[in-house]
Amino acid sequence: MVSNHNTINNIDNNIKCTLHPNKDIVFFCLDCKLIPCCIQCTSSKGEHHGHKTDPLESTSNILSFMNNFKNDIYQKVIERIEINETILQESNDKYNEIQSQFDNNNNSLRKEIKKIHDIISIIELDIKRQLEKTFENNTLINTIITSSINNDNQILSTIINNKNNKNENENENENDRITTIEKLNEIIKFNDQQIYDNGEDFIIDRDTIKIIKQYQQSLIVLNNNNNIDNSNKLNEYDNQIIHFHNQIIDDIKNNLKSIYTLDNCRFKIEIDENNNEFFEWDNLKFYVYIEGDSFKFKENEGTAFKNNCNILSKLKNQLPSNVMLLDGFNQKLTPGILPDGVKSLYLGDIKQELIIGSIPNTVTRVSLLDGFNQKLTPGILPNGVEWLFFGDIKQELIIGSIPNTVTLVSLKDGFNQKLTPGILPDSVKWLYLGDIKQELMIGSIPNTVTLVSLEDGFNQILTPDILPEGVESLDLGDIKQELMIGSIPNTVKNVSLEDGFNQKLTPGILPDSVESLDLGDIKQELIIGSIPNTVTRVTLEDGFNQKLTPGILPDGFESLNLGDIKQELIIGSIPNTVKEVNVSTSFKHQIEPYVSKNVKIIKKNSEK
After folding, report:
1. Domain termination site, one of 70, 103, 136
2. Which of 199, 204, 421, 426 has its CA 20 to 30 A from that of 463?
3. For residue range 24-36, what is the model confidence (pLDDT) as tens digits?
4. pLDDT of residue 335 exceeding 60
């Protein structure tokens, strides 16, 4: 007789293990929710070594895994696809935003580097003009000296060489070719002898007249002081030599390397109709301050200061109540720089340490954003602070870091500091926890806290006593660790399971102290016993999408609030103990058939 195993193989020869494609699936692992596995999976190096297994042909196991596949795994597969599509969409959106920012960065790079090029070109042109101006002056001096000397020399050379001026008769006889000094000697000798012999007057002939004129010309030239003027002009020459200050050039080179920073941008920068940069954060619109621009602060909006701002001291009385100091901000916050009047302060990775008095006493809300890297010694946060938000800060907290006036603390995704007992002061009443990275310990949360909100991504195990007695209200988002009996203390009266909550509510998880329960779009079905009998008020919020089979809502509760729930009610869903049903305008189903006639139904503030 052929076994079922062989029959399976004959029907489908492709029943291969996903992890080991050369091996057939032959077992169910009893220790791992009946996951199918092969021989290699159960081998000494396999993922299921030492686990209990059953053959693939086991009818009970096949039916069990099929029911599990149908009722649990298949729905999770659909949810995973939806989650993956959401993540993919977010990834594409982020990438498109990054691509857009990449283009903006390149445009900014070209513009800013062009500004530097333009400045250097202007400097080069200015130096050239200075050099050219000086050279032109030197050329003029040279021209004046050359012209003056050439003119004088032309006259004097004519005299020495006994040459005629060009405007005189160009015809020369042999006698004209002797030099002036020879001519002078000849005339003087001849006339001296003639006067001696005859006692007659000096004979003035053409040669004598020429000599007389040359004598006149000589005196004019010799008396004009041109040689002195030209000699003095030699001192007016300016032989410029350009020198470059290499140290300054090196400093400029080094400074040029620091004219930019590449920051991970947590904000999506947008441009408004007046060409001002802004981004949305914490339900506020923050305008990026740019020094020198015409800028009007708006009270109901925030102002963010970049790393190149050294302007706060000049804007003391102009700042709005919401101020953000962005990553790289490098002005020392001495007391008084931030004026009284600032109420909400957001600090990124600022570069100067804080001192007592840096933050004015008017500040009631402080957000320390991802990357904040300054020590919070006692007194840095003033006693006026009431709400405190922590991102992924880089310095550990110590007792006294948080003043006793703080009533609300929110530890955002990525917070990675230990919460040893005493860090959170006894003044804290409301605590919001995101995807923090350090595990909580008993005593991390003070007994004074009355409301705890575990937000989407919270990934710490809530062993008993982590949430202290004293907590009265508990909000649970898409937390990643399953709850256990004792996770929620017996003091909790109000529980809200927010959209995305994806943990099973087995009986006993919600303690008998719970009186009010709000249910959003939770992802796990409710079972009888999920809701304790002590609950007197239930709210099914918009998006609630679980079947309310009879018995889910326990006898004893009296008030039901209905939003836009996605599953129709069925007979018996609402127990007879209910006295009042509040129906939201978004509720799309009938209510009357499912409640007794004496139930008070309130629709849109009108009684029926």
Report:
1. 103
2. 426
3. 988 888 888 788 8
4. yes
